């Protein structure tokens, strides 16, 4: 098979590759909030402790893009970091920073074989994409060289830029820097190749769903994302679940299973290996969506008989 021609990297595509290291389109709803005012109190954390007789694994739900005013973090989160000897993220820090990651992603995204992007999308979705590109000055001819999932990523990155959010301030990056400064080892729950494959190996219907979801989010504007960010700051797991994951599960079931359920299930054995250690605790920082609801990591570990408790000094006591 002849090698694919090298992809030309544009600033917009570089932004999309940065986003890819964080999450997939719907999960980014948990991260798109246009904050401008200072926050009076630290965010109430989405933090759980899974423990056995020897050690503990802390599970922290992240927004992958945040504002400077989302810091400092709560004492609960800082205590979990201090108690942990190791950290785990969706991707290991060295993979996120690898200089060839962007090229690998773009090569995976380039179209191959017969047919065009317009053929893949069909007349209705193509018309929506044309309208969005016209309104926002996106180079549709250039984007047409890529698969639908990458186009959806590009739209999401365009919208996130309007919200003024910074991936460098995301909770993942924050703790990667803290781990490095403290000399604590950090690992990934999946490889960069596996994360790219989550998108690149989607069938065309799932890719169309991803692109349609990105356009739906763009049409919604900042209203929903601001509400979701507020829910994250409140530590309101129910609001985040019903506002994102449950809706996605109903409207885009194949996409939901691909980017959420399958990955959650794949991570559980690695988390159980951390629990099987005879000493030392681990802090795991992943997108908040992965921890919530009946398909979330918290529920999966509870179903396997592990002791799981929410760590939240600021939460109202349960009756």
Can you describe this structure?
The protein is α/β, with parallel strands linked by helices and 319 residues long. It has one domain. A 6-stranded mixed beta sheet has the order 4-3-5-2-1-6, sandwiched between helices. Helix 4 runs parallel beside helix 9. The N terminus is likely disordered.
Instruction: Find the structural class using helix and strand composition.
Output: alpha/beta
> Span between N and C termini?
64 Å
For the record, the count of structural domains works out to 1
Q: So how many helices? A: 14
Please outline the major beta sheet.
Answer: 6 strands, mixed
Strand arrangement in the largest pleated sheet: 4-3-5-2-1-6
Overall pLDDT confidence: 84
Feature tags:
319 residues; alpha/beta; 6 strands
How would the blueprint of this fold be written?
Layout: H1 11-20, E1 47-51, E2 56-62, H2 75-83, E3 84-89, H3 93-96, H4 101-109, H5 117-136, H6 140-143, H7 148-163, H8 171-182, E4 186-188, H9 192-200, H10 204-220, H11 222-234, H12 237-251, H13 253-275, E5 281-287, H14 297-303, E6 307-310
Helix pairs in contact: 1-4, 1-7, 4-9, 5-10, 7-10, 11-12, 12-13
């Amino acid at each position: 098979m002849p090698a694919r021609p090298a992809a030309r990297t544009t600033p917009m595509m570089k932004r999309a590759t940065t986003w890819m290291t964080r999450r997939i389109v719907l999960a980014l709803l948990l991260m798109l909030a246009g904050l401008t005012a200072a926050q009076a109190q630290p965010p109430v954390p989405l933090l759980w402790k899974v423990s056995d007789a020897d050690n503990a694994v802390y599970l922290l739900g992240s927004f992958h893009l945040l504002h400077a005013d989302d810091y400092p973090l709560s004492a609960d989160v800082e205590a979990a970091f201090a108690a942990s000897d190791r950290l785990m993220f969706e991707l290991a820090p060295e993979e996120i920073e690898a200089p060839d990651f962007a090229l690998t992603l773009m090569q995976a995204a380039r179209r191959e074989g017969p047919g065009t992007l317009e053929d893949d999308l069909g007349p209705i979705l193509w018309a929506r994409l044309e309208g969005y590109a016209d309104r926002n000055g996106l180079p549709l001819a250039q984007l047409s060289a890529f698969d639908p999932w990458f186009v959806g990523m590009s739209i999401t990155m365009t919208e996130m830029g309007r919200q003024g959010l910074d991936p460098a301030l995301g909770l993942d990056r924050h703790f990667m820097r803290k781990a490095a400064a403290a000399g604590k080892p950090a690992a990934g729950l999946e490889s960069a190749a596996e994360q790219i494959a989550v998108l690149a190996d989607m069938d065309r219907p799932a890719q169309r769903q991803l692109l349609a979801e990105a356009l739906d989010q763009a049409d919604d504007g900042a209203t929903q994302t601001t509400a979701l960010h507020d829910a994250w700051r409140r530590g309101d797991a129910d609001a985040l679940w019903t506002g994102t994951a449950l809706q996605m599960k109903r409207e885009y079931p194949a996409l939901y299973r691909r980017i959420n359920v399958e990955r959650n299930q794949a991570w559980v054995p690695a988390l159980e290996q951390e629990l099987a250690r005879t000493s030392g605790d681990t802090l795991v920082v992943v997108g908040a969506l992965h921890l919530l609801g009946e398909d979330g990591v918290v529920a999966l570990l509870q179903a396997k008989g592990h002791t799981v408790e929410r760590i939240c000094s600021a939460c109202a006591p349960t009756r």
